[in-house]
């Protein structure tokens, strides 16, 4: 008997996990994942198991929502302890790798400019053959990791990758980076499958093209005991139609945060995909159902988890032509290759774009523009703004650029001319360096130093410097995570007097005084040129 053709429901949330923790850039790249497992996940779980009441008490304060506190009640301590013990066993090689990285740093610290040749013999065994020892021009020694080899080694643990399925009835989701997903979470289906698996593409294609459920269940390795729960993720109801833009000009649709769909009749481009799920809501928004059947280009500005999000990216992979990422400096722990990573998780066509390098496309081009700031002064080159030129219009998707050196934009303007539309984030009070990069540091930074090196975008003064120098006709400020569906990755808790919004309003006022169209879009907006 033939099986009915069903659609994947629009409100099925599928979280990509690594060792049951929400997956992001540094949890997928093989040189950095061990550092976060050993220096972040294990430590949080150890702390919770030792005294869960401290974590429960801390999270009663909303200001601590993004801190290192595990978000379960004391009654789940036994389950967390079980995951901790399993992590120590199954991730033993990763923990050893992290220890070896620390030992390698200690080995290189005393190097004074003399040849490093003899030190190769002293590199920890687990790292031998995977690193090159080098000096910079000031005779500071460091190690360069051979990332392509690590992706082909046992240190790239696809077996630690999995997916967590559940139905959403609202936007609220708990903060994900300090709490693992436990197997016993109610109404949640945990599926062990590497992110690159082709069955994932077939599943997500069923959001718009119906098909039988049983072949997908079998392809994903979901057993009979979970078949009933899996079946609840499908429906006979077709999604609303989403026709591709067919006008003569350029249409820009704002999906929230830094996600903008740019379309002409010939090409579709999606920036930093963060897309809401679709369920009854009093807050209108664009969702997966509003995306075209084919997205020709996805543009990623940088690897921070609110811009390169595996959750929406994997759901879009089956319909994406080319992913454009910034080129990295290669081999650095803090700056791993986004191209290698995305290819490893199943994206077929990934282009690494360098500064002022252009990619031709129908009716225009995409050009990489320097992006400075927001990375706590670390030497991270895998960050780039995208200048999209279509139909004679120019749109600079500047992400969280911070005009630390305003004269940079004089040189940018000389190279690319005036800009029609500037999109810019203004997270003017980002977290300290240790909040994101702490697990990679060989030693904790002094608090004063740590607090001085923050993940800041532009404040009003610096945003005005950018606008003054590139002369845009329109300025639009990203909502910076205010959308309710961003709480699980941002935990910002904005209010009207938050410094970020105060600074944004200053930029709006400056633009309006000069006749520049300026907005602070929230949730949903549409522009035509």
How would you characterize this protein structure?
With 529 residues, this protein is of the alpha/beta class. The chain has 17 helices and 22 strands. A hairpin with a 5-residue loop joins β4 and β5. The longest helix is centred in the first third of the chain and has 18 residues. It is globular, with a radius of gyration of 23 Å. The model has no long low-confidence stretch (mean pLDDT 94).
In brief:
This protein is of the alpha/beta class and 529 residues long. It has helices at residues 25-28, 33-50, 52-58, 77-90, 92-108, 147-151, 198-205, 213-219, 227-231, 310-316, 338-344, 408-416, 433-437, 447-452, 460-470, 487-490, 499-513, and strands at residues 7-8, 12-18, 21-22, 131-135, 141-145, 161-167, 189-192, 234-235, 251-256, 259-263, 268-271, 295-299, 320-326, 350-353, 358-361, 364-369, 385-390, 393-397, 421-424, 474-477, 517-519, 525-528.
State the share of residues found in helices, binned by percent: 25-40%
- As a percent range, the share of strand residues is 15-25%
Shape: globular
The mean pLDDT is: 94
Strand order of the largest sheet: 14-13-12-11-10-9-22
N-to-C CA distance: 52 Å
Decide which structural class fits the backbone: alpha/beta
Q: Using only CA atoms, what is the Rg?
A: 23 Å
Q: Identify low-pLDDT runs.
A: none
Question: How many DSSP helices?
Answer: 17
**E-strand count:** 22
Main sheet characteristics: 7 strands, mixed
